[in-house]
Amino acid sequence: MRLAPLRMADPVHRRLIGVLADQVVALPDAPLQLPAPLDPRAVALATILQDDPGDTSSVSVLAHRVGASRRSLERVFRTDTGMTVGQWRRRLRMLEALRLLAAGMTATAAGARVGYATPSAFGAAFRAELGATPAHWFSQ
């Protein structure tokens, strides 16, 4: 099978390129991306969470630690990252869990390390975030 090059001079090709570009733009975020915040308070929070993904402190407690109100912190975090603090924290935890699982840690131990109280809570969060169980993720 040989593919012909697309030529912008050809109106059909130009339309096809436009449709493809529209489809790429409409793709949802990849589940393994973790957008970085820009606001100094949000950066401080992200640093705290990255230093200890298993930290189970409430957003209110974390906001106090970075010198912001919970509402202000939630607002700037969503503006900067497109995610709530809870969504961002869960994504961070899943990325750390993937690293731990890839290093050979059991799902139960990885889940506990990243802040989940039970294996079932970790499994449910993992499936919700990544679309598969930890065992299925690594069997692919």
From TrEMBL:
Keywords: Transcription, Transcription regulation. Signal peptide: none annotated. Pfam families: HTH_18. Residues 43-140 form the HTH araC/xylS-type domain. One of its GO terms (molecular function) is sequence-specific DNA binding. It comes from the Bacteria. InterPro entries: Homeodomain-like_sf, HTH_AraC. PANTHER family: HTH-TYPE TRANSCRIPTIONAL REGULATOR NIMR. This is HTH araC/xylS-type domain-containing protein.
